[in-house]
Amino acid sequence: MLKVDGVNQFYGGSHILRNLGFEAKQGEVTVVLGRNGVGKTTLLRCLMGLVPVRSGSVEWAGRPLDGLPPHARVARGLGFVPQGREIFPRLTVEENLRIGAARKRSDAIPASIYELFPVLRSMGGRRGGDLSGGQQQQLAIGRALMGEPSLLILDEPTEGIQPSIIEEIGRVVVRLAKEQGLAVLLVEQYYDFAKRICDRYAVMSRGRVIASGPAAEMDAKDVRALIAV
């Protein structure tokens, strides 16, 4: 499992993450919810080693990740889909996918990627910048899966995407956890989508986890009210 314990992080004099802790298990979808500005994206960047933590620890599969650079965390089995997708717009779909296999001996695109996202096969020769927002999000997830992660981290994958693609992404996320045994950690703002796909949830406020538990308790614990603007 992923275990985050007592993590603190600062930007200048601002205390962004405050003794933050939670867990995410293999074979499950864990969703981190919260309003804008509570530190969700900063948390994910800390997990990937893109920004340092001041104190606390991060472990994956029983091994500490503290101090490791991003590429070493990818080698340990972490895959990351950042907010805004950050694909390479001038490269083709196939080229974008192959970049995700940079740490592997082969950059051959597995059939499983195209099985999850058929549109990527049909648009393999098109530039990434010519795709719609939803198609770019599928490309970004496919690129992360090229590294064969055991922990997939996604930052607001539904942002700016049409409802039909949101539903498809939700189905893929659940399949990755249930059929392939990945641990999926997903940051999200939309309660209904989160509740539909997650096994466990954690709600952040002012850099802390203020509520967490199994998905079945989300309505009873009034999680929707905790994230309402």
Keywords:
229 residues; alpha/beta; four-stranded antiparallel sheet; 9 helices; 10 strands
Any idea what the radius of gyration is? 17 Å
Helix content: 25-40%
Please give the order of strands in the largest beta sheet.
Answer: 6-7-8-3-9-10
Oligomer: single chain
Strand percentage? 25-35%
Spell the H/E element sequence. EEEHEEHEHHHHEHEHEEH
Average pLDDT: 94
Low-confidence stretches: none
List the SSEs and their pairings.
Layout: E1 2-11, E2 14-24, E3 29-33, H1 40-47, E4 55-60, E5 63-64, H2 70-75, E6 78-81, H3 93-99, H4 111-116, H5 118-122, H6 133-145, E7 151-155, H7 163-178, E8 183-188, H8 191-197, E9 200-205, E10 208-214, H9 223-227
Helix pairs in contact: 3-6
Could you explain the architecture of this structure?
With 229 residues, the protein is an alpha/beta fold. The chain has helices spanning 40-47, 70-75, 93-99, 111-116, 118-122, 133-145, 163-178, 191-197, 223-227, and strands at 2-11, 14-24, 29-33, 55-60, 63-64, 78-81, 151-155, 183-188, 200-205, 208-214. The strands form two sheets. It has a six-stranded mixed β-sheet with strand order 6-7-8-3-9-10, with helices on both faces. It has a four-stranded antiparallel β-sheet with strand order 2-1-4-5, covered by helices on one side. It is globular. The chain is 32% helix and 27% strand. Strand 9 (200-205) and strand 10 form a beta hairpin.
